[in-house]
Amino acid sequence: MQLATIATRAQIGIAAPAVRVEIHLSSGLPRTAIVGLPETAVRESKDRVRSAVLNSHFEFPMSRITINLAPADLPKDGGGRYDLPIALGILGASGQLDSATFKGFEFIGELALNGEIRPVCGALPAALACHAAGRALILPEGNAAEAARIPGACVLPARNLLQVCAHLNGSVLIDPQQPPPPAPSPPGADLAEVLGQPRAKRALAIAAAGSLNLLMSGPPGTGKTMLATRMPGILPPLEDDEWLEVASIRSVAGFNDVGDPRGLRPFRAPHRCASAVALVGGGGNPRPGEITLAHHGVLFLDELPEWPRRMLELLREPLESGTIAIARAARRVSFPARFQLLAAMNPCPCGYLGSGFRDCRCTPDQVQRYRDRLSGPLLDRIDLMVEVSQPGDALFCTREQSDDESSASIRERVVRARQRQLSRQGAPNAQLGSTRLEEVVDLSSGDRSLLVQAAKRWGLSARAYHRVLRVARSIADLDDSTTVSSEHLAEALAYRIVDFGHAHES
């Protein structure tokens, strides 16, 4: 009786739990069985492994082979990521490799029929977990540069099964993969290119400073999309732990983009025709959706009322908790989803209500039905609302004539504001609970009375009340102020109490 055990990693969400591949050879009719809750793609490994072993000039044992993927209660999917450890385990159990050489290594990789090793999804989370366990990781060459971005990790890239066996035997060692050089940040679009719109730019800076949600409303052609696409240029760079989370998400989603700039935050702009699964994630084997791909970055939804209401309501929970839980009959997977919501909309179905340069064709009932597509609970979760109007004479100014602040200058102020928040409370203002928020804002009795009166007059909910405080605190941080003044509070209320388009109606 021959037995071999080899270490590998599963993929559950963006986690990579440990899996032991146990190979047992016994007498009986030749047969290969895989147990341990494997999915269909994993059960097919036995055929790929057999061909890869034979084409790598090894013998495939004519025995009864039992392959156990432990723990047995953990679903095993992820395509062919278990092919390489299964093949090595069979070679070890049959005596063609010394099983003792497996110690200190973990293995992932899909085998081609000729023995080549193909890339898999989720290599970065596996490398993180492997490094934490103090082991070296042997994986496909196509995943090596991705995994080597982890400081101190020992990543060994392999082209084929024969090369892995040669390394384990000590005959030809594999050189560790060196980390790729950092990619330069691509030149981004400058906010100064958007002529006029000082109020909208101010709102963008406040939202960036506090990691707050922002809704812009205005007629077509006023620059809402231009403003939104320039948001990444004023956001602070990713911290190291944030970058690892973002990179792990992209790895699980199948984006093997090694050269992505480390400091650049995600910016996702899905089309309103996207499905619910594409937006929030899901599927038989749950995959991250757009809200998870926007983790630590921005999710931009254009033409917000045109999105199906059911899909918009799906955003309510992740906007509060920063996670999205996807439940299936056999499993429950949680993905991180702490994103900033940046949205744009027209004031009415035709788009020209209150524009001042084109007549609106919509009836009051049509306007009301259009706005009612956005539920109150969803709007409660938006921190700032700003109206974007025609730029006027600013449209005819040249870049040299304009005195608009550049993205680089705004980003410097945003970075200082964010650093102030991290040193004061360890998190951006958007993540503060109500108790801690009251402590860091510390309104005077007069300012608190003003806020209470505004809440009563405009019917602000408790959630909206605290979001006004978050905005006021972010304005103060952006202005390098240690305290929240009456001016900061009044400006925060102005971004809350907005009735899009009505100010221009006759």
Secondary structure blueprint with pairings:
Blueprint: E1 2-9, E2 18-26, E3 31-35, H1 40-43, H2 45-55, E4 64-70, H3 83-93, E5 105-107, E6 110-111, E7 117-118, H4 123-132, E8 136-140, H5 141-147, E9 155-158, H6 161-169, H7 198-210, E10 214-217, H8 224-229, H9 240-252, E11 267-268, H10 276-280, H11 290-293, E12 298-301, H12 309-313, H13 316-321, E13 323-327, E14 332-336, E15 340-345, H14 364-371, H15 376-380, E16 384-387, H16 407-425, H17 434-441, H18 445-458, H19 462-478, H20 486-494
Parallel strand pairs: 3-4, 5-8, 8-9, 10-15, 10-16, 11-12, 12-15
Antiparallel strand pairs: 1-2, 2-4, 6-7, 13-14
CATH classification, class level of the largest domain: Alpha Beta
Total beta strands: 16
State the secondary-structure class: alpha/beta
Question: Please, how many domains?
Answer: 2
Helix content: 25-40%
Overall pLDDT confidence: 90
Beta-strand percent range: 5-15%
In short:
The protein is built from 20 helices and 16 strands.
Features of the shown structure:
single chain; Ribosomal Protein S5, domain 2; 506 residues; Rossmann fold; alpha/beta; four-stranded mixed beta sheet; elongated; disordered C terminus
